[in-house]
Amino acid sequence: MPPVSPAAALVTGASRGIGAAVAEALAAEGFPVLVHYHTQKDKAEAVAERIRAAGGKAATGEADLSTPEGPARLMAACREALGPVGVLVNGAAAPLAPKPLAALGWEAFQKPLDVFLRSAWLLASDAHADMAKAKWGRIVQIGTASLWDAPPPGFGPYVTAKMALLGLTRSMAAEWGPEGITANVVSPSLVATDLTAYIPAAFKQAAAQQTPRRRLAEPKDVAAVVRMLCSPAGDFVTGAHLPVTGGWRMP
Predict the structure, then answer these.
(1) CATH number of 8-244
(2) Cα gap 7→172, rounded to integer Å
(3) Residues above pLDDT 70, as percent of the chain
(4) What's the pLDDT tens digit per position in 84-108?
(5) So where are the chain's domains?
(6) Which of 23, 28, 66, 121 could form a disulfide with 14 if both were Cys (CB 3.0 to 4.6 A apart)?
(7) Catalytically annotated residues
(8) CA 59 to chain centroid
């Protein structure tokens, strides 16, 4: 069961898209929420204001999670504004620029690894002290449905970083479970957000027709699963890799 006084929920990449939907869903579940942003302060403030207008508690925090010091600064800001951290959702994303593997050097892999893997570890290892003390914690990573199948051409660094994140999450689930901490990965198929605005409409329409639900995923679909994992209903779910694909993938 969660603490009597809900610990804070820190959601990275929460100024828009999936992260914004997750922040609002967790606030509706009763958690004070720290809305993280890097460059889009106005959008983050708008998310926090919607949460407050609905009766929730929210603050914003800026950090460049591709840097070694960004996660520590963000965690400190969350504790100062909202108290101990009980929920961590890693939804921050780096811009997608598809390129074939043969055209890449190692630097193309380093940035996704820094954003998706290093920051997730630094945030989780910092939050672990709060969660272990409370004997309750929830860690959720936003993955990708590409982890189940042949990756789409041009996304090698992105998929590599997300696959590493899956391994890290399962390790946290195994080692931290006795302390009341769960760790899971939620992997959506193609989601209609501004991050995927560069994808041609014809491709999106074809992708939608390949799902039994006949539509693309929406941020609220992902947020609903994250909310469940952080609620009492998710207490016995850990180390899981959950698809939010409308049936496009049935692993």
Answers:
(1) 3.40.50.720
(2) 19
(3) 92
(4) 999 999 999 877 788 999 999 999 9
(5) 8-244
(6) 23
(7) 158
(8) 18
